Amino acid sequence: MATIDTHSHAEVHHHDEHEEHEHHGNFWTSYIFCQDHKVIAKQFLITGMMWALIGGTFSVIFRLQIGFPEANLDWLKPILGGWITPEGKIDPEFYLALVTMHGTIMVFFVLTAGLSGTFSNFLIPLQVGARDMASGFMNMLSYWFFFLSSSVMFVSLFISTGPAGGGWTIYPPLSALPQAISGSGLGMTLWLVSMALFIVSTLLGGINYITTIINLRTQGMSFTKLPLTIWAFLFTAIIGLLSFPVLFGAALLLIFDRSFGTSFFLSDIYIGGQALPNQGGSPILFQHLFWFLGHPEVYIVILPALGITSEIIATNSRKPIFGYKAMVGSMLFITILSFVVWAHHMFVTGMNPFLGSIFTLLTLIIAVPSAVKIFNYVTTLWKGNIRFTPAMLFSIGLVSFFLTGGITGIFLGNSAVDIQLHDTYFVVAHFHLVMGSASFFGMLAGVYHWFPKMFGRLMNDSLGYIHFWLTFVGVYMVFFPMHYIGIAGFPRRYYSWTNFETFSGFTDLNMLVSIAAILTLAAQFIFLFNFFYSIFRGKPAPANPWYSTTLEWTTPRHPKHGNWPGAIPTVYRWPYDYSKPGSKEDFIPQNIPYSETPESNLPYENEQIKLELGSDAIVVEDKKH
Amino acid sequence: MMSIIIGLGVVLVLAILYMIFRIGNLIVMVKGEEKRVDSFNKVNAFLFLVFAVVSIGGFLWYSYTHYESYVLPVASEHGAITDSLFWVTMGITVVAFIIIGAAMFWFTYKYQYQEGRKAEFFTDSHKLEIVWTIVPAIVLALLIFRGLRVWNEITGPASDKAEVIELVGQQFAWMARYPGVKDNVLGSINYKLIDASNEFGLDLTDKNSFDDFKSLELHLPVGKEVLLKIRAKDVLHSVFLPHFRVKMDAVPGMLTQFKFTPTKTTQQMRDETGNPKFNYEMACAEICGRGHFSMRFPVIVDTPEDYEKWKITQVSWLKQNPDYMKYVPPELREAARIKAGIPLDNNAAAVSAVHAPPISN
């Protein structure tokens, strides 16, 4: 005990010096190549927002094609140039490229880098009570690798053969053969390079998050006192660290197949009038490797959002999160199971049906902890005293999406039912709600909630409400009708359905979806305006605008590099002492010792007072040295 | 004109938003002293309730009134079973969905912020946690066991009497190959033998290939088990027969298969749906490039008699491409001629062509 204390104080001392040093930083070291986790978080956020805008715009362009197949899109020529055919239609191959890029951008750049990158970076040191990440330099590299990766992907949008077009899952042989689709030429090469850089970025970030959470918690911040956000970021980082290298491996083998004549994924192919020499490879192997990342990736995307939501719902319900241990337990269980469910994406790919049975079983097991999380959120709302801040609205929206989208997972996880639904719009509806929209809402909720800490100002609430209602209703209007379209069998990634009598209906619903998509995208500009306006002109934020218990609100309004001007606060209690019986205020921050709150202490907490005094004694002893 | 109206509308909406924004700011400034919540708290709580009622109501109404438009009639034995599993799952999940959704949005309304009220300090309940872990676990277990039993039947081995048909996917069309009426066995293939005419890569040293015939329609016999042997020539494709609840990827270098039994002929389906133009169709369900959306393949389900009649009228691939007789080993040519149904004079021409120096090379 004593040694740990000594250590943490040495740390404090070291960082204090560091902080003094920081004042002399110039523009480059304070805003560009900065090692402060808070600045890096903002860099991730702004880059993520830019990508979200691009990804969202892509979806609206291809929705134009699906919703209004007869429309003349010549007016897009100034932007898309040759990708608009002389008849005023989107080129079918470019349509696929848009779909591919929309998926890649949203999954990796927005909901992985934009979400984890922003909030893991911003919140981990602030909420565990650390001066910065374990390695500020690696953290900076993490952003700049992401930036490099982004730049490569961005460049690929402008090349003459178009960006990668084989779907975000880049299944070979389509992604391996430029003669199969033009996007598999230079576009695919850039995709792979970009993704390799992205994986480096993710690993650098992930190692840092894990190390910081394990090693740099402030005094008293035991694992059971960690806010659920931090638990979520920890599990997310662990999943990423274990699964991203597998995608790296898959990408590397694909690069070999594409450029060096190997046959890992290619066999018995006759294309463009000739038989290729490759034999013995298996496209199914790639799918296994891809989904070994791809499925955990879903949890990489959703877990941080769930962590953020837990924090916001508890704070704004003025209630402790219900079942803290069950929440941590279910996240742990999800983390473990996320590695053994990947092949449920592959029930009808020709994989051995016996494997299909195993993965059905494992997949439906993972539904249980997810259901527990929903029940716990709903119970947290029960008998609360709910304050609907924009962040709270988005968090409730997230729970709603997680429920609606999660339930359809029960259909898709059951292999026999999946036969019909696989690769139809039912799947599109499912994952856009449960992981896409849900984690997007988590990200927005996080921005609204921690904006005052990020920029020292408040965002405008009214615009936040309008943004929420338009987006919430809009998202449901976009994705709910897709369930019907999917049950009717409409396949994904179709440029048009007019070739089929079976898929001739639902022009009305498809049009509705497209209109809703346009309006939902438009509503995001309210947010963008609010965000950038408030950075400069927002109302100055009070120290603790949401009356929250966690440590980040004990920092000054504009925390410098090092976060706390004096010593790092010591933590005495768990982060969810909201509306504690006997307490005058309806929240007790984590850094308030039990000895100061005798009126609200529970019997076993009075026991803790002795320990608090004991640890104080040790601190005094240390200071004497 | 239209674009001017749209433009004006957009400007109007923006102006309204800006007004709300300014007024909101002013109100905050005028009010001065901090209150935890503003009047919008009530509005938001109420809107959640309205949202819940309208959306659940709309969902039930649309699902009920438009049932015909989103449910495809089913025409296979296993499809009827997976459909029933689908609807059982739907029943269970919709009940859960409505209960949880109603509870959540009721709570957000009921427990909206009130000055002076204190929330319940309710941190944990083992009883509740256990209940809502075990109940979903049991329900899911039931669904899984039902599902796995069905899955094992669907993916189990086909009977020896099953009608074997090969489907080949390529950019961007399907082809079907039938084993022929003489031997009823598909001849072996080799992708290196594929050329402009020999699209299947038929290996003509295998005597089973002589009577195989190509079809650009998928004919199926009603009431008889069909085993689809599926492969792809270039990239991944996926055989999707929506009415039969059949889907299986076509993978280059790997043979996949799916067995099922059609239960309704095309004619029966036309009578049942009241649509005299009804046709079964096959689509591609795995992204395969530019023409992914155009890989339509007509499907016709015949009575067994009609099906046999249709098969007999089909011309074998070898007869359609007599030039390829040259690849048949000399000792099998006689058999090939008979099996492929090639008359003698035709054959003589083919054989003499083989003996001509440039080609025999």
Structure commentary:
The complex is a heterodimer of chains A (625) and B (361). Chain A has helices at 2-22, 27-32, 37-67, 77-80, 92-128, 136-156, 186-215, 228-259, 283-317, 324-337, 353-381, 390-412, 415-421, 425-455, 461-487, 507-537, 603-624, and strands spanning 270-271, 274-275, 457-458, 539-540. Chain A has 625 residues and is mainly alpha-helical. Chain A has a single domain (2-22, 34-267, 274-540), classed as Up-down Bundle (Cytochrome C Oxidase, Chain A), CATH 1.20.210. In chain A, the strands form two sheets. A two-stranded antiparallel sheet of chain A has the order 1-2. Chain A has a two-stranded antiparallel sheet with strand order 3-4. In chain A, a hairpin with a 2-residue loop joins strand 1 and strand 2 (274-275). Chain A is globular and about 80 Å long. Chain B has helices at residues 2-31, 40-65, 67-70, 77-110, 126-155, 266-273, 304-313, 317-320, 333-340, 344-355, 357-360, and strands at residues 163-170, 173-178, 213-215, 218-221, 226-232, 237-241, 246-250, 256-260, 280-284, 297-302. By secondary structure, chain B is α+β, with helices and mostly antiparallel strands. In chain B, helix 2 (40-65) packs antiparallel against helix 4 (77-110) and helix 4 runs antiparallel to helix 5. In chain B, strands 3-2-1-5-8 form a five-stranded mixed sheet, with no helix packed on it. Helix content of chain B is 47%, strand content 15%. Chain B has two domains: 39-110 and 129-156, no CATH class; 163-354, Immunoglobulin-like (Sandwich). The chains are: A mainly alpha (625), B alpha+beta (361). At the A-B interface, helix 5, strand 1, helix 9, helix 10 and helix 11 of A face helix 1, helix 2, helix 4, helix 5 and strand 7 of B.
Q: Give the CA-CA distance, first to last residue of chain A.
A: 16 Å
Biggest pleated sheet of chain A: 2 strands, antiparallel
Order of helices and strands of chain B: HHHHHEEEEEEEEHEEHHHHH
Tell the overall outline of chain A: globular
Estimate the global geometry of chain B from the Cα principal axes.
elongated
CATH homologous superfamily heading of the largest domain in chain B: Cupredoxins -  blue copper proteins
Instruction: From the alpha carbons, calculate the radius of gyration of chain A and give it in angstroms.
Output: 25 Å
Derived structural class of chain A: mainly alpha
Relative helix content of chain A: 55-70%
The greatest interface between two protein chains, and residues involved on each side, is: A-B, 122 and 118 residues
Beta-sheet strand percentage of chain A? under 5%
Q: What oligomeric assembly is this protein in?
A: heterodimer
CATH hierarchy class name of chain A: Mainly Alpha
